From TrEMBL:
UniProt-listed Enzyme Commission number(s): 1.1.1.3
Protein's GO biological process: homoserine biosynthetic process; methionine biosynthetic process; threonine biosynthetic process
Name of the featured protein: Homoserine dehydrogenase
Keywords: Amino-acid biosynthesis, Methionine biosynthesis, NADP, Oxidoreductase, Threonine biosynthesis
Assigned protein family: Belongs to the homoserine dehydrogenase family.
Domain Homoserine dehydrogenase catalytic: 99-296
GO molecular function: homoserine dehydrogenase activity; NADP binding
Cofactor(s) this protein cannot do without: a metal cation
Pathway: Amino-acid biosynthesis; L-threonine biosynthesis; L-threonine from L-aspartate: step 3/5; Amino-acid biosynthesis; L-methionine biosynthesis via de novo pathway; L-homoserine from L-aspartate: step 3/3
Amino-acid biosynthesis listed as a keyword: yes
Catalytic activity: L-homoserine + NADP(+) = L-aspartate 4-semialdehyde + NADPH + H(+)
Positions bound to NADPH: T40, K64
Pfam families: Homoserine_dh, NAD_binding_3
Length: 302
């Protein structure tokens, strides 16, 4: 935490360590329902979740790290929340403000058996594949344009490698009821050519065009059969499989109407045609509303 101080018309800031024990002790002394909202990207803050929950402090977070990490750690958080009779909500870890995780939990609670959860969970990859669809442009040009528009990370490979989508897939799989799901055991397709994975960003951008034809051929093959390629996560609860990568979708698939949005399609024993959730999957405003919705759920808990 940074604290500012000024003297003689000047100002300065210094880094002051946050005393999380003092924070939790203070909350527990107040009247009302204690809630801590974590909107940092800090793993050190997440190390306090379990003690907060066990003490009866609800936790709301937008930080996906711990929820896509070791399953034992994740399960320990659920146990702590149950013992502390409080809530652990992290809706915005998948799809920003979209009501995806809450919908999954509501479906399970109302006797639905989740069969599959499919998701377009990267706006960057949706944009890139949308640009190469129909041969409109090449892979390298689409990545260049996405970078110039600010849609990618400074190193576009951090988007193209699929790891962010994979982390979200782990979260979806666990909430859908799957056990034993770990990143290390998943099939994750990277769109970064192997020969360009360890070079500089400039070299990557310069040489990506060498791989344009292979992508164009792949897209054309699927489209000639009447389908469309999307980069997506697929959680198959019945088959106990989680896959992340290029998904060939037939013409009637909901993903073909996603455009630049995030989209999640859920099938259950009752929803044999998918229940679809669609909308902006990133952005400060929608993420803030998702965090606020979780806080209000905690504040209104019985």
């Amino acid at each position: 935490m940074k604290v500012g101080c000024g003297g003689d018309g000047g100002s300065s800031t210094e880094e002051v360590p946050t005393d999380y024990k003092a924070l939790s002790a203070y909350l527990l002394k107040q009247n009302g329902i204690p809630v801590i909202a974590d909107v940092t990207a800090s793993s050190s803050v997440q190390e306090h979740y379990q003690e907060w929950l066990a003490a009866g402090i609800s936790v709301v977070t937008a930080n996906k790290g711990i929820f896509a990490g070791c399953e034992n750690k994740y399960q320990s958080l659920l146990t702590a929340a149950k013992e502390g009779q409080c809530r652990l909500l992290h809706e915005t870890t998948v799809g920003a403000g979209l009501p995806t995780l809450g919908t999954l939990e509501s479906l399970k609670a109302s006797s639905h058996d989740i069969h599959t959860v499919e998701g377009i969970l990267s706006g960057t990859l949706a944009f890139v594949l949308g640009q190469v669809a129909g041969g409109k442009t090449s892979l390298s040009q689409a990545v260049k344009e996405a970078k110039e528009l600010g849609y990618t990370e400074p190193d576009p490979r951090d988007d193209l490698n699929g790891m962010d989508v994979a982390r979200k897939a782990v979260i979806l799989a666990r909430l859908a009821g799957m056990k034993g799901v770990e990143l290390s055991g998943m099939t994750i397709e990277s769109l970064v050519p192997e020969s360009l994975r360890s070079c500089s960003v400039d070299e990557f951008m310069a040489k990506l065009s060498e791989h344009d034809k292979s992508m164009a051929d792949r897209v054309a093959k699927v489209e000639e059969a009447g389908g469309r390629l999307h980069y997506a996560a697929k959680v198959d609860v019945k088959e106990q499989k989680v896959e992340v990568g290029m998904l060939s979708c037939e013409a009637s698939h909901p993903f073909n109407n996603a455009g630049p949005d995030n989209m999640v399609a859920i099938t259950t024993n009752f929803y044999t045609r998918p229940l679809v959730i669609q909308g902006a999957g990133a952005g400060g405003e929608v993420t803030a509303t998702g965090v606020l919705a979780d806080i209000l759920q905690c504040a209104n808990q019985p």
